[in-house]
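pinging the channel bc i need a second pair of eyes. not urgent but kinda urgent?? the chain im working w is below, pasted from the shared doc
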Amino acid sequence: MTGNLLFLNGRVLTMDRQHPRATAVAIRNGLVAAVGTDAEAREAVPAGTEAIDLGGRTATPGLNDAHAHPMSVGFAALDLDLGNPPHERISDLVALVKQETRTHPAGEWIVGRGYDQARLAEQRHPTRHDLDAVSPDHPVVLIRVCHHIVVANSRALALAGITAATPHPDGGVIDRDEHGEPTGVLRESASSLVRNKIGAPTERQMVAALERGGRAFLERGITSAVEAGIYRAEEMHAYQTLHRAGKLPIRTYLMMMIDETLDALAQLGIRTGFGDAGLRIGPAKLFSDGSIGGRTARMRRPYEGEAENVGLWMMDPDNLKAKVLRAHRAGFQVGIHAIGDAAIDLVLDAYEEAMLTDPRPDPRHRVEHCSIVDAATIRRIARLGAIPIPGTSFLYYVRDAYLQNLGPDRIRYAYAMKTFADHGIVAPASSDAPVVPTNAMVGIQTMVTRRDRNGEPVWPEEAIGLDDALRAYTVAGAYASFEEGIKGTLTPGMLGDVAVFETDLEAVEPDGLSEVRVDLTVRDGAVVYARPSA
């Protein structure tokens, strides 16, 4: 019967503090009907219900990625991968571009994603000069892993009309050489000058990307995610098309860009929470700053070795505060990208002023990424009831860039899950995929070990246990979308979303958690992903 399923003989981690462990779960009509012993679960579903013997494997609630870009994950699969395997030199990236030109007609754009200059021998970004020799007939754009910096070759710069005379756009920088000529490196809003020339995908292409991206999340046991930026009506249409057809792979909480969507939504009376368990309007979103790896996150103090560089504001601070107040008054939860400590200060100022001006209960305003904080800022987050959305995989993948750009002391409380918990702060885990891979187990391993991909420690004082790391990927994510009443735990009445891992997670050495595979992903009591040969 559709929506009915039994899991037996397992290690069920319910995420319910009152009943944290069980051996079985019964799902009836798409909802959890019973959690307990095998016998108790069997009694809760009709005779003949399909039963899956877990054989001691771990089952958890379906995982929730609190900040990602599912559509971009789908599109990224079509682009040149500059991050895997890790490349050692700029010449490695250039060789990939050269190879790509052989399969693209002249004049067609070549887009690559995922390089990190901190991991290259040259310790710098590629430039147009590096790319021009192998791509005279193709416009080329290489996107840094953070997606806040791009490198364009000369043909792409020409199509975008970028010359020595082109001024820096608001919230962006065009890097120039000693002669004032563009190097091809475009930071923050300056990257849009080139990106806009590539052309927007069609709605049909967006639907295909969502299906492809959604499958990537399901393969990792993720049944819910936040889409961290809806800009265009066509993007919303693509989500609705799949949702109406019952084909949207994962439950999605949509962050709506304030400048592009707030006025239309507010005029219709639509606010955070509109929708259903499959597709729901989430926060109104803004950007306050950039990234650490690109040295554009707004800091209180300069970056290492650059006495004049404290990063960038994406907009005038007073303008940001005004936009936050508009969204708050319209009934929206607000989520603002803020990575640097100065940017986080500004965001918290904006939230506090909005709540004082127009008090309303429990707005749960969010600080997306919330990377560089100190103890005083953490106490302020707790006092305001704000929700940090830490990128728990970032330290695993880009610790090198954090250390090079900020030094060790300023990252003491980066993604400080233990200190957040000590202050009673709900901190949902996120990947920001495709910035880093969708694999939630990387984030969970990093929370448990506080070590990067090379095994180097990153303030191990902030390590937490496996249960709490899983809770960050389940209960906390549900709370951040006001959905803790319907998902995040395996308790009767909750949605029948389950992730089944290939082994007993509690028996795995912490440094091996990232290698654990998902065998089954279940949504509404139906298997939506099964690992081949599992």
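so The longest strand covers residues 222-230. and The two ends are 23 Å apart (CA to CA). — does that match what u expected or am i reading it wrong
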